[in-house]
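One thing: mind reviewing this one?
=====
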Amino acid sequence: MLDALPRTAFSLLAGSSAMKRLASRYGMRQPHSFARRFVAGETVSEAIEAARSIERPGISITFDVLGESADSTAAAAEATRAYASVISALQQAGVGRNLSLKLTQLGLVIDRATSIDNLRRILDVADGAGFFVRIDMEGSMYTDQTLETFETVWGIGYRNVGVAVQSVLRRSEQDVRHLNALGARVRLVKGAYREPRTVAFQQKAEVDAAFDALMKLLLSEGVSPAIATHDPARIEAAKAFAKSRGLTADAFEFQLLYGVRRDLQAALAAEGYHVRVYVPFGTEWFPYFMRRLGERPANVGFVVKSLFRERRASP
């Protein structure tokens, strides 16, 4: 199974209110707290500070205000206003003009029309400030609605928007072919959600093979594709395929997560590739943090040691 036990365990923990309360108590209290390994902070000012420490020639940024599943129109509207405020703050700070967001933040669990209206509000503000917005892909229960929402705003004429596709899902080849035909900008990821075998590959080798196949489709037919992975084998496969197609380094970009493989980020940039680092921040960081641990359980030891250090230091 594809890291089945860690993914299952961390998926359950991500939904635990008790764990969230404990993590909220210790996770962001100090500059070197355990959650800050993967989350830039809880405020936009902290995210800007983190971005400035990362941005340099060859390395760009995308910001993500963490949060999921707004369950009321008021909560969805609040998230929409928050993104508009973030755009203004980032514009004033002069850092990278690139955002990632989840449609469940904007009301997708209420109805698709609400998420479309809120997404359009954000895209209008973003377009005026020169920002590009990427729609993240969530669990498979939202895949159809996410792609339909993307295609709706695309059909209206928005071009400052792209979408992510997960190689773990069996359907993704047809989705990538369709998005390529539209001329959409696609971010390819493996996928961080626990999914049933009816819709998703369960073996790591299958997910990797699907990732490589989708990568080749995107590099052959896509528009400014983003290859998002920390897997050295997948990165080498992308580099080799791009070279075989005679693609220049600016024809695509590698995307990596904040706090993960900083050495790899720097190495790729030094080789002349365009690298973009995904910088998440916000008060609702716990589910995101748990998914990162589920993807790479080796990080658990680091977190446990940090947690015990912080508890000993507490008054």
Observations:
- The longest strand covers residues 274-281.
- The radius of gyration is 19 Å.
